[in-house]
Predict the 3D structure of the following.
Amino acid sequence: MSRRLRQFAIVHRSCRLNRGKNMSNNRWKFGIAAALALVPASMAMAQEAVGPDPLSTLCAGGQANAAICLSATLATTTTPTVQSWMSPDVGAAWRAGYKGQGVTITIVDDFSSTSKFSGNFGIGTQTQRHGEWTREEASMVAPLAAIRSKDFSTSSAVALAPGLNVLNLSYGMYAKAGYSPSQIGWSAEEASIISYATKGTAVVSKAAGNDAVAVGGVTGGQQDYLDLALVGKASAIFVGALNSNGTTTNKASMAWYSNTAGSNTAVQSHFLVVGVAGDKTGLYGTSFAAPIVAGYAAIVGSKFTKATPTQITNQLLNTARTDTLVGYNASVYGRGEASLSRALAPLAIR
Amino acid sequence: MREKSGNRVRLCTAALVLSASLMAWSAIAQEMTTSIVDIHQGSLLSDRARSLGSGGYELQNGSRVSFNQWYHASWVDMHVDLLTPITEDTGILWGFGTGEAAEKYRIAPSLKLGFLTQMHPGPNSTLSLSFTATIGGKLTEKTCQANYGDLGSFNVNCRLAASEMAPEETLKYLVNAKPESQHLWLNYRVTF
């Protein structure tokens, strides 16, 4: 049996699968298959052999404090600029000066592999690791949020910071189809993430996947068990990709590669979509959808400073728009396109 | 909204009325007759309150909220200024403002009290000095109750409820303004 971890734009990783209680000691270590049903532009990414990301080395090594990673506001640009790939909502959000401050976004991703690829978020072409891309994207959407980098090769539990926490997961945990999530012998890392989503102690923004199937669906005989483990969890959000930011006059449709919500109402009710303008950035995949929602969660959290992660999650889900989508259907788009402006607005006022 | 040119016309009218009253003053002073010096509607605070009514935002369901519904007053603050002579060259200036109110603001009624005195440096010239103080007339913006669904209901600044600002932060930006509380006026007139 093999198991693979897919970044929804890159790969690498090993983990263990547990076949039920009676087989708790019977675990397999799976080789990692770098798979990525990526998109053409990403397939053309530059691969370079380079040293590990200096920011992520703080998380590596497996020490007791390995999960205490970098906690800093990344200075991507001195003055945040609304980029063409962003929703206009983001600019409107910044104008009042609230940009995610007081919120911590932890990017659980690849910060140490030699795999890099090129793209441009509007600040010049760069060649970076997958985690560096998703981290940069989240920090551009919520420029005043504290950003932590957690290299997922460490497998240690993800630590939470004081205040509101948002976790970004732009990867999946794939194994042969047919198991129950409870049969999986999760590492401390994923176990902590699943626990946070279950208890509602962190907003978990999870990339839906790039196989053009329903979340949790079988592709190539395998399933994303991290998806399955997060279904029905209080503060988990699955994020699919649209081919653009939708408006009522220029509606968006699902990106051809994006996983959909499917028929499971528990998934539909926690599924959002956002525009991934790969034509502008050269970066495609739901890997780049999840950090947008992570950034939105941080901005909403910077306004509602006493809100719980579950409340922030529900606010984003309840305020999603369906009138900006081509042929809205819950089995495709779930709750609809995330709308930052509506998540910040009252339901009623008098 | 009242235009600035309208304010100027109002002020000129007031000055003319005041001058006319002064001319008639000496004739009526002995009878302690009270005269109307000025009547006008609107003020700087009225203008400011009305300016709050521009703009709006969308609620979560996409319905539009216009600020105009909250900041449109059916009655505009009216000011009446009166003069009661005490002697041939002095008098008491007094008056009142009715105030105005809309759903989300209120300009309180006001009282004005002061004096006017004059002297004659020459046979054809008059130097007059007046001072008035105003009590009340404060502009107070009211709060809204905003329901953010799962996140609860908050007291907010109506205009900033959909901003990125924390609900409690918006309250810092409520408008609370006082009118011009004191006014000193010096006038020299030569007739030839």
Summary: The CA atoms of residues 111 and 264 of chain A lie 33 Å apart.
